[in-house]
């Protein structure tokens, strides 16, 4: 058997370019939540793919934005740390996009001394002429990058991208046990699944004012009993989350439970409680509690 390869492959880009869809396609598991809303990913999520002679650690980071409050600053810290330990950068753009929302981050990608694969997504929504002009444009912007057109949603050319990543990985022993799928605990995926349903079903500011914490996770032989808290910033938001006679929160619970039963392969009993946690997005202590602030 040949040498073992292992490395960190970090997916970076603006919001809504399909990073989470690509991450899940590459890993073959639904680790990152996917919605059409911006800022769906708040944390840095690792997805680990193991083969006999390789281990690829994919990292999905929050979409790059100009931070407006402390939570968003913490989200951008995850992106910066992903740049620092990458062995390969996947800079993901979509057809028609021009550059990153953060100029300094864009310069780092332009000057990176590690392989950069510029992943041009959503080519299923484009014609040949547009695609060719986009490839020319990005060749000028980042001459050292290798451009790979894909459709993450349709899984078009994703396998070729995977194989190219494998070629670029450094020789290294594995960083994680070979049976490990992610660096996140089970409760994290419960929280993210519930938050995804909130992103899908509530409008305006509500989804961005929500944080989910799983307080209880008891696994028995045939069932997992879960109690999760949905935190909001205002009393009025609490009312909206619960809905008329509890109808809105019930829908979130039913849909989250179905997804979690598929994810864990067991029956799920899910209890949801809504609590007000005033201005948590701007509170350092609360952000640390929710895993955002390392300072």
The level of helicity is 25-40%
Evaluate the radius of gyration. Answer: 20 Å
The helix count comes to 9
Helix vs. strand class: alpha/beta
Estimate the strand proportion: 15-25%
How many strand elements? 9
Q: End-to-end distance, in Å?
A: 44 Å
Per CATH, which architecture of the largest domain?
A: 3-Layer(aba) Sandwich
Give me the CATH fold name of the largest domain: Rossmann fold
CATH first level of the largest domain: Alpha Beta
- Spatial strand order of the main sheet: 2-3-1-4-5-6
Shape: globular
Total count of domains: 2
CATH homologous superfamily descriptor of the largest domain: P-loop containing nucleotide triphosphate hydrolases
Order of helices and strands: EHEEHEHEHEHHEEHHEH
Q: How can the largest sheet be summarized?
A: 6 strands, mixed
